[in-house]
Amino acid sequence: MNTSRRDVLKLAGAALASTAFPSIIVPNRAFAGINSDTLKVGLIGCGGRGSGAAMQALKADSNVVLHALGDIFPERFDTCLEGLRKVHGDKVKVDNERKFVGFDAYQKVIDSGVDVVLLATPPFFRPLHLEAAINAGKHIFCEKPVAVDAPGIRKVIELAKVAKEKNLSLVSGFCWRFHEPKRAVFGKINDGSIGEVMSIYNTYYTGGAWNFPRQTGWSDMEFQLRNWMYYTWLAGDHIVEQAVHSIDMMSWAMGDVLPVSAVGTGGRQVRVDPLFGHIFDHFAITYDYPNGAKGFHFSRQQENTERSYLVETFGTKGRAMANCSRPMHKIEGQNPWEYSGVQNDMYQTEHNELFASIRNSKPINNGEWMANSTMIAIMGRMAAYTGKKITWEDAMKSTEKLGPDSVSFDTAVPKIEVARPGFTPFI
Fold this sequence. Notes:
Elements: H1 3-6, H2 8-17, E1 39-44, H3 48-59, E2 64-71, H4 76-88, E3 99-101, H5 105-110, E4 116-119, H6 126-135, E5 139-142, H7 150-165, E6 170-172, H8 180-190, E7 197-206, H9 220-226, H10 232-235, H11 238-241, H12 244-253, E8 261-267, E9 282-288, E10 294-301, E11 310-315, E12 318-323, E13 328-333, E14 337-338, H13 346-359, H14 367-386, E15 390-391, H15 392-397
Parallel strand pairs: 1-2, 1-4, 2-3, 4-5, 5-6, 7-10
Antiparallel strand pairs: 7-11, 8-9, 8-15, 9-10, 11-12, 12-13, 13-14
Helix pairs in contact: 2-3, 2-4, 3-4, 3-13, 6-7, 7-14, 12-14
């Protein structure tokens, strides 16, 4: 997740300037204020990613309004709404009484009369918020990752089944699955253009990320919530919160066949200050697949280091490249090919397809694969943290629950030590 996605003002400018978006859905009745065809959207989590999702949701359909906001930090409302109003004007219909603050704000948004909810809080809260939205019969855009531990994943898998039974759309924030160049190259891989897949090399090498120094009056819980990405119980570590994009594409290349086991390493080399919580700053994981194929994942969050964000897939008939840093999508070998089609805005496409599915009564349900991709990343973290070989079966049966059952600003923060491979146990 790069910085521009978190910056709502940049998103606002991009939304105004872009001409590369695919066609926008037009419902039977054009937007002219609230009417029987209006889809009401509720945003849960009003930071940069949530604001961006709301920006795209309002652009995806001509008769949609933003109806309610929820966050634990009320100062985020003004920034969020300012950017949205610059672009979408009277599509933003959030009255003061529908700005909900607190740890129960998600439920108040869901109960406010919305049709669609956008879930963009820290990942720890995702299973809880998904459960509430699905139980209430709402269509959902769900940011990745979908959980931080195996109990959360098991819950999401069950919730995805309920969403399917209720004919609800559940669209994932694994954005590359909505990128036309990626759809083309991974489609060819899955169709056999490079033969049987034997190995996949994928990277997510990036720099550091934002952090907020502690302020007077903040409890330990507030400090961690404001710096959530540095705490495993809130974010899952950066292999789960960020590098999971590359892991998801690795799984895509394998046709979403699940790995058998994982072995790996990782640690904290440069980001060792307590300000950075207890997460690692690098990972290297090897995944084994049922056909003998291997997936090699490398991720890093370290300043002044080489950047890389790509997936190379090697098969018995050739090699496929999907580069996320520049437009390079090609196949070399017996069936050479290079993508030359549209370069779409994948974030917008997520929402275009979500709202089209609602209008056409043809629900999209990404629940199972988005849970599995998140779990593959969690499995890699388990392997790195413990230094042990972790099987898929054992990972899915893990009883380790990272966070508390309920959270308030007065809740004691979980006592989690920085993992020590060979000493940290698998639970």
